[in-house]
Amino acid sequence: MSLELEQEGLKIKEILEKYLNVEEIYCAATRTGFITRERKTDPFAFLFALVLGRFSQDTPSIVKYNRIYNSLSGKDHSIEYNSFYDRFDESCLSFINECLDICLNKAMSEASAELYGHLRKFKDLLIQDNSIVRIHPSFSEKYPATRTRSKAARIKIACLFSELTNSPAKVTLSAENTNDNKTLEIGPWIKDKLLLIDRGFFKHETFANIMENEGFFISRVKKTSKPRIKELGFDIPEHLREKCYGKTIFEAMEILKGRDIDANVTLNYPVQNSNGKRDLIPFELRFIAIYNEEKEDYHTYLTNLSREYKAKTVSDLYSLRWDIELLFKEMKSEYGLGKIKTKNEYLMEIAIKIPILTLIISRKLFWSVLELVDEKDKKDYRITKWARIFAENSIRILRTYFREIFPLDKENEWDWILRDLIRGTRTDRKKRKYLTMDCYH
């Protein structure tokens, strides 16, 4: 493998300047009230300290972020810990939200490429899923946890993932006990796009809304669902097909045990009429069941994809849902999602959204760097390994970037290192006695 890397390292700087632009960050900080005329806090250094100020597997803390911020901001903007902690207020959350929106919008605006292979007819492949994060028990009333007898609080992070941009398209937060379907709002945005959803989002109205908005979907099937067989493919013997007509899908699966199934089925969804009552409106979908010989069980799907997509192709497309599992795993293991436990409600939400910002930057860098690799070698590079290496080098990236855009006087840089070492070492716990220090008196 040969990489022409001379001067190519500037790609890292270009991505940072694009997604965390200096002017846009200062404007966002002003609009949200995070900074005032005094501008004691440098919002640019503040945001970067949060997004890139940690190592892989490192447990994040406000103390560490404060140290990194002070090392970046210079003496005119340095802040003591208590004042730094107090900055995590409502205006700070608004600032972080606006920066996150800017990054999400930029990521989606880059979706000008086309999908390939079986996905070429779709504008994008989207995956919706949720992940649960534990937060401080003091939020148990607002964000109650489920399936626990003790006082606990958990937040449900709902993420709509774009396969085309390889980053989140939308992120919302709610209590753990929020029904999954309430975290997914179908609208015109689904037109000509393929959505992958699991059983948590299984709802007949959802399917009907997707079709009404000219979108496409693949969903796993709930065992409580009872679509009825309307038509079976000719690969099933006629005497077995006749037995299945009018049966529920799970009754048909017992009759056709061991065979793959590709059938048209009918479902109903309720619509409120002018009398205030609900009418059941029938509609058709395609039911697919792939038999797993090892487990002697079926993998079942409902979809509105045409038979242009064979049953095995539909199953393969659904397996792409694994990408969003990797996304949540990456944020939790490498970017500190869920590791800061605090009673400060604003900081709690900020600590959830910062890893999302870090992930967007990391993944944009990955695809940019991958362009430098020989085409035949690209398959050897894994985004999971990249996440670890990126996290290990994030502080290095941070300091290099700041030295370039805010160059310090070289005569003063060593003085600043010394000042950071002294400031970071000093403790406020003056009552505690350390015997080691007595040796030097």
From TrEMBL:
Positions of the Transposase IS4-like domain: 122-344
**Pfam families noted in UniProt:** DDE_Tnp_1
Lyase keyword on record: no
Keywords of this entry: DNA recombination, DNA-binding, Transposition
- Superkingdom, taxonomy of origin: Archaea
Gene Ontology molecular function: DNA binding; transposase activity
Q: Which InterPro entries match?
A: RNaseH-like_sf, Transpos_IS4, Transposase_11
Q: Name one GO biological process term.
A: DNA transposition
Q: Which SUPFAM superfamilies match?
A: Ribonuclease H-like
Q: Which family does it belong to?
A: Belongs to the transposase 11 family.
Supply the NCBIfam families for this chain.
transpos_IS4_1 (NF033592)
What name is this protein filed under? Transposase IS4 family protein
To which species is this protein native?
Methanoplanus limicola DSM 2279
